[in-house]
Amino acid sequence: MAEAGETARESGNGPTLREALPGLIGLLVAGFLAVTTELLPVGVLPAIGEAFDVEESVAGLLVSAYAVMVAALAVPLTILTRKLPRKPLLLALMATFAVSNALVAVAPTFEVVVAGRVVGGLTHALFFSVSIGYSARLVDRVWMGRAMAVVGSGISAGLILGVPLMTSLASALGWRVAFATLAVLGLASTVGVSRILPPVGNDVPAREAGTSGGHGRLAAAVSANGLTFLGQFTLYTFISLVLLGSGADERAIGPLLLGLGLCGLAGLWFAGRTLDRNPRFGAVAVLAVTSLAIVAVGVGYPSLAAVVIAAAIWGAAFGAVPSVFQSVAVRTHSTSGEMAGAWVNATSNAGIAGGAALGALLLDRGGVDDLPWAAATITALALVVVLFARQTFSRTP
Q: What is the CATH number of the domain that holds 324?
């Protein structure tokens, strides 16, 4: 049975964005730490490899295998846990992230590091499914887009601030200190979130009157999401090589990536402004600008100024992507918010892993020049899906 808040929400009288803001900020913080946990090894792979005398290619599995694990297990784990109370489950997942980072921090062997990352991957596979469903239940459905944008900013903050800051800490004090710090922050945030996050139900929301074909709409939403992430990471995985090939100094790569990441905040603002009013316009605009900006990267290469300007526009547009597809998937009402989130989570990570693999293949065969064209083509395919799936991306009542 739905909780009182859920019943009110279905009647159109649920909590406003302001009323739900403390809980949404709690989910924002949790997402920030989850993304930082996932991607921190990118910045410390050489140090980990040196510490345990393993090749960097082997150490790289700490990132790629993590994404594959999430892609494969997000849906099954969400199904297995669908009857569990939401708040205790979310808090348990946050605490398990802390355990994962603690294992890596104290690992005496590389095998223990791998074990810690396996724990993190299993946790991540379920975490965002629960978090997406949770945020959708905290507010009345008319505020869902803005709620998703608030929670989605935790993902952007992890990319923009979390990973660079923890990488800098690792450079100064060692990679073990960085993971230990994440573990402590994870435990502290679990306690804090437990106090501000209200409980929600875990029922499947009723389908809107007069709607049908929810599963088909969900399939369209997550297919477009997977294609978008596939195109994004075909190029973004190797963006450092693009910048270096354009003449950027190696010492400038970090600040440049930070600046490009900050541009994503504009996308979050745009998502918050459009997703509750005209989600189809928002999705089309975001993917069209993303595709054109990636094309501009290819046209501008190897001019550093042209590449940086195009990449800034690209980064700004992509900043809206997680919020767009999370919101649209939940609004299909074909299943619970958690299952919709699971499919978004799975296809996002499949795109990340697939994009990295495709980009590496293209890099070996044709060099950096080929990456933007492949990335833009795949992203344009996502745009085609959005254009044809008109009902999927339309505004629900």
A: 1.20.1250.20
Cα–Cα dist 79/83, whole Å: 8
Tokens representing residue 249 in the block: 């100094």
CA dist., res. 39 & res. 327, Å (int)? 24
Place of tokens 């344009």: 380
Q: What pLDDT, in 10s, does the model give residues 253-307?
A: 778 878 888 898 888 888 888 888 889 999 999 999 999 999 999 999 999 999 9
Domain count, the chain: 2
Domain with 362 in it: 214-388
Which residue's entry shows tokens 């992430």? 229
What DSSP state is assigned to residue 250? Answer: G
Same domain flag for 45 and 166: yes
8 Å CB contact between 344 and 223: no
**Domain check: are 187 and 219 in the same one?**
no
Cis peptide before 302 (omega within 30 of 0): yes
pLDDT computed for residue 2 by the predictor = 39
Same domain, 234 and 382: yes
Helix (H) or strand (E) holding 396: none
* Domain final residue pick, 196, 227, 252: 196
Q: Residue 246 falls within a domain, yes or no?
A: yes
Same domain, 148 and 293: no
Helices marked H in the chain:
4-10, 17-52, 56-59, 61-80, 86-106, 110-138, 144-157, 163-173, 175-196, 214-236, 239-245, 253-274, 279-300, 304-318, 321-331, 337-366, 371-388
Residue 146: which pLDDT band, with cuts at 50, 70 and 90?
A: confident
Same domain, 231 and 126: no
Q: What does the alpha-carbon distance between residue 63 and residue 104 come to, in Å, rounded to a whole number?
A: 13
Q: List, in order, residues 6 or more apart from 242 with CB less than 8 Å away.
A: 235, 297, 301, 307, 368, 371, 372
- 9: pLDDT strictly greater than 50: no
